[in-house]
Specification:
21 helices; 14 strands; five-stranded parallel beta sheet; Isoleucyl-tRNA Synthetase, Domain 1; three-stranded antiparallel beta sheet; Gyrase A, domain 2; alpha/beta; flat
Length: about 600
């Protein structure tokens, strides 16, 4: 039972993930289940691949000390996962990389190094393989015992202490509050939400933030558009301004204002009326955005007002730093950030000749606030594809403000094309406008939205197949993984109905290849979490979850869990324990992806 068909499973296998996985930075490892920190988080030192790397490093030192290897600088030791299990659980290609420095053949290096690598639990043996690999085999008994460790850790399973409490802010969505969220915004929302959840269990202190563009020319146009429709609703002759918003939602918004406020603004001076409508419209639009985000389980810790940058003095403080460092210049009646002094192709206007700050100026002040005033250790911005051209100058200005540019990471979320089979769906049937997030969720559900948006790298353009997302078959990965969870829930209900208790199940009985394969897969999660935290690529979690579901479905087909045969009580208990452990891991994955875990399907 392996998923197939139109959902493009192979597209989940990104080259960047494979490189991370094969280098030992992500995937393929096991967590040592001996002890946990008080927080329930697994310290990185307990990830077995890190311990093997330490043992290899110690082996190199011993080999150099004894003269088996000459003195040379040792590069970072990479722990890999062999593609074939007969080559062991882990491997290092270090001898191949040392050949030039040591002036020895890779095999000679491997044969000299391997005997000097200490063997400790759970490593069972260390072997040399051509053309210069050192392979590590893990004890099968230890592997089986990790089922107990998974159950002991429960909901905390998979957490690692990579971040060590570093404060990281993730700013995402941040759509101008001038219209409803559409499917492109939804992708960024899910990417940010999923990444934040994963970083939180990787030991970071995460803050989720929405930046509200509540000042500037676009909000002015928004307010004047509401006013025009408000006047029209009262039978007045009014035209929407040329730079106004043409969507039908603006007519609906003005209608809501009329229903609530009646004719209150008809007798006001125009500027006063527009200002009041601006505040009413902003509040209503933000309320609508919040509701839409809640529909796909996206929440924020902070809703940050752009206007507050000017009210608090952050804007002036940021400009003073740039001016004092010589990065501002007056030309053509405007104020320019001299980006070219930092290697950019052109300078950028920060204050227009009218005296009004540009959006870039607001961004400068906002990043001053984030990095210097609030002092986040790291800041991650998830922006839409239309912001690609702003990345370089934003990185430049962070350095000009005196912050380490490495503290800022900008992820660009590319466009989404909605499909019904081969047909591209471009506009809403209801309004003739772009399809909104709300319409998408109404059609396919929040679980499908979250899985599919998480399943692709942010930088790749995406086809979202609406028909596939609703399909109840193995072709649909959402159905496939949730069915695995529901199947587990059904097995455990059956066990409860029969009065079967797995607490005393003996995991040493789990010797079938499908059982061992499932255990191996379950034990990957901590390193998947670590790898995502390092790469900031949450799409690896959906891929892993499908692999876990595949391993469970295979186990289910190969091994009867609840047996009616006399004498099978012990193996039934052991398999129930494994099944419950798998439910623990699968539930954690679904939770981190923001998806539901159905008990029945």
């Amino acid at each position: 039972m392996v998923p197939c068909g139109g959902w493009g499973y192979t597209e989940l296998l990104s080259p960047s993930f494979d490189r991370l996985r094969m280098s030992g930075q992500v995937g393929g490892g096991h967590c040592l289940g001996a002890t946990l920190s008080d927080s329930g988080i697994i310290p990185l030192a307990m990830l077995l691949k890190h311990r093997i790397a330490q043992l290899v490093a110690q082996g190199v030192e011993e080999a150099q000390r004894s003269g088996v290897l000459p003195q040379f600088s040792v590069p970072e030791i990479e722990i890999e996962r062999p593609q074939l299990l007969e080559h062991g659980d882990f491997a290092t290609s270090l001898p191949l990389r040392l050949a030039r420095a040591a002036r020895m053949s890779p095999m000679a290096i491997a044969e000299g190094l391997a005997p000097r690598i200490a063997i400790e639990e759970p490593i069972e043996r260390v072997e040399v393989a051509s053309p210069g690999f050192i392979n590590f085999a893990i004890s099968q008994d230890w592997l089986r015992q990790q089922v107990e460790s998974v159950l002991e850790q429960g909901e905390a399973y998979g957490s690692v202490d990579l971040g060590e409490g570093q404060r990281i802010q993730i700013e995402f969505v941040s759509v101008n509050p001038t219209g409803p969220l559409h499917v492109g915004h939804a992708r960024g929302a899910v990417l940010g939400s999923g990444l934040a959840s994963i970083l939180a269990v990787a030991g970071y202190d995460v803050s989720r933030e929405y930046y509200i563009n509540d000042t500037g020319t676009q909000m002015d146009a928004f307010a004047r558009t509401i006013y025009a429709h408000y006047l029209q609703a009262h039978g007045r002759d009014a035209e929407v301004p040329p730079d106004g918003y043409m969507g039908s939602y603006m007519v609906d918004l003005a209608g809501e204002v009329v229903e609530r406020e009646k004719d209150r603004f008809l007798t006001m001076p125009v500027d006063e009326a527009v200002s009041a409508l601006r505040e009413i419209g902003l509040k209503k639009m933000l309320g609508s955005i919040r509701e839409d985000l809640e529909r796909i389980r996206v929440e924020f810790d902070v809703w940050f007002s752009e206007q507050s940058l000017y009210d608090s003095g952050d804007y002036e403080a940021a400009m003073d730093i740039l001016r004092g460092s010589g990065y501002l210049a007056e030309r053509e009646g405007a104020t320019w950030f001299t980006s070219t002094a930092l290697g950019e192709d052109k300078d950028n206007v920060v204050v227009r000749s009218t005296g009004a700050p540009t959006y870039f100026a607001s961004d400068i002040a906002y990043h001053y606030n984030k990095l210097l005033k609030r002092g986040y250790d790291r800041v991650v911005n998830i922006w839409g594809a239309d912001h690609q051209g702003h990345v370089s100058r934003m990185n430049a200005v962070v350095g000009a403000l005196g912050a380490d540019a490495d503290r800022l990471t900008i992820i660009i979320s590319q466009m989404v094309a909605l499909k019904r089979g081969e047909e591209t769906v471009r506009i809403s049937k209801r309004t003739g406008d772009l399809i909104t997030l709300r319409e998408l969720v109404d059609e396919v559900g929040s679980d499908a939205c979250r899985f599919f948006f998480l399943s692709r790298t942010a930088g790749s353009q995406m086809d979202f197949d609406l028909e596939l997302a609703k399909k109840e078959s193995d072709d649909n990965p959402v159905y496939y993984i949730q069915y695995a969870y529901a199947r587990i829930a059904g097995i455990m209900r059956l066990a409860q109905e029969r009065g079967l208790d797995y607490a005393q199940g003996d995991v040493s009985l789990l010797t079938h290849e499908a059982e061992v394969a499932l255990i191996r897969n379950m034990l990957l999660l901590p390193e998947i979490i670590e790898g995502i935290a390092l790469s900031l690529e949450p799409h690896h979690l959906p891929r892993y979850t499908v692999e876990l579901a595949t391993a469970f479905h295979w186990f289910y087909q190969q091994c009867r869990v609840v047996s009616n045969e006399p004498g099978d009580e012990a193996i039934t208990q052991a398999r129930l324990k494994l099944t419950e452990a798998c439910r623990t891991v699968l539930a954690r994955c679904l939770s981190l992806m923001g998806m539901s875990a159905p008990e029945r399907m």
